[in-house]
Amino acid sequence: MSKTPINKLPLIIISAILLGAILPMTVRGNSDAGTPAASGDSLSYNDRRRYDYFFIEAIRKQNAGDYAAAFDLLNHCLEIKPDAAEAYYARASYFSEMQNDSLALRDIEKAATLSPGNDTYQERVAQYYIGSGNYDKAITAYENLFEHHKDRSDVLNILVQLYNQKKDYKNMLGAIERIEQIEGSSDELTLAKMNVYEMKGDTKMAEKTLRSLTETHPNESADRDDSFYYNRLKYFKDRVLVPLAYVDFDEYIEELNNERDVLNKDLNKALKDIEKRPDNKKAYNKRDNLQQQLDANQQKFH
Description:
Number of helices: 15
Distance between the termini: 43 Å
Order of helices and strands: HHHHHHHHHHHHHHH
Shape: elongated
Strand content: under 5%
Largest sheet: none
Radius of gyration: 29 Å
């Protein structure tokens, strides 16, 4: 499976991100060579000064277009400080540029692991997993991101889509419910839950969810001419098991009969085309497609 290369940020933005990550740690003033630069910093004062110099110089070289020099400087930074998340993150873009996606991913994963609270690193590694089709790891990355930012419904929206890829309907519903906790209930979220119940095959819960929605619009749902009712019917016309409780049967069956007549007409035409040209593959494909649609139409009568 080919992997989607990591998207590159403009150099000026990369510089701002990386310099923002490193400059707050820089210690100003004099200190003894053997004294740590700051509380919790494993580097001595002099090593910290060297690291800061090489890292900022790497960004300067990058902005000047001297990428080879910038790459060497970042490697030197990691020799001084092997746990420098920002250096791994910066180096990943060079591996990606060289089409070495496995090393690029390794560096991004390292940066995300070393700095779990950094949104940029966490989202970039998650996006890389999605691009490569590794949805399990993408889910883990976005769940970790949400753990650090409980107010980010955009992350939950992505998780809903990822869980849908895995057909994990239980966690799809859980993600939608978490969105409701952040944004409050809405028609859109209720309909989203109804969709999941239908995909799950739980028609009772799907119908119950839709009924609860119409109950929140009592004046509208009681009137067959209102926009709310017809918007729901139009949107869910192909999801028969739920809206049957609300549909005008005569009108609905007439619509199905008209659809069946058109499909039969097109199917007969496709069969005649096959008789005339037995080697016409498109005619066979059209026949199979029309037959599937006709079978689906017939199922709606049961």
